[in-house]
Amino acid sequence: MLNNRSTRGALLCIFSACLWGFTGTVGQFLFQQMGISSKWLASNRMLAAGILLLIYIYWRRGKEIFDIWKNKKDAKDMLLFSLIGMLFMQYGYFLAIGHSNAATATVLQYLAPVMIVIYVSIRYHKMPSFLRV
């Protein structure tokens, strides 16, 4: 059954979604019951995930994991995405959980693209085209 790539991909996708949903609840528990800060949780979660991914990729591909550093533009893009994209998104998500709850933080996270479209529309006095959205 798991030999079929589509089936395996679908199962991994479902499993990942369940784990992602579990993350908010665990974060809320850690904030309320254990007194952990959102800054600590976001940074340590990203660090642990990065280390685990590097170990896995090294195991699968060997020294290819260092190829990203051969191209300065790729390295810069990866660092910007990691620090500005992922870290701030994770920190904001856990900060929202800390100030409200996991459900509210999830709704806010999924509303972010809509809020960006509204902001850009107001800022530039132009609605985006259907293809742009």
Automatic annotation (TrEMBL):
InterPro entries noted in UniProt: EamA_dom (IPR000620), EmrE-like (IPR037185)
GO CC annotations, alphabetized: membrane
All copies of domain EamA, residue ranges: 8-131
Bilayer-spanning residue ranges: 40-59, 79-96, 102-122
Keyword vocabulary terms for this entry: Membrane, Transmembrane, Transmembrane helix
Family, as annotated: Belongs to the EamA transporter family.
Descriptive protein name: EamA-like transporter family protein
Species this protein is from: Anaerotignum lactatifermentans DSM 14214
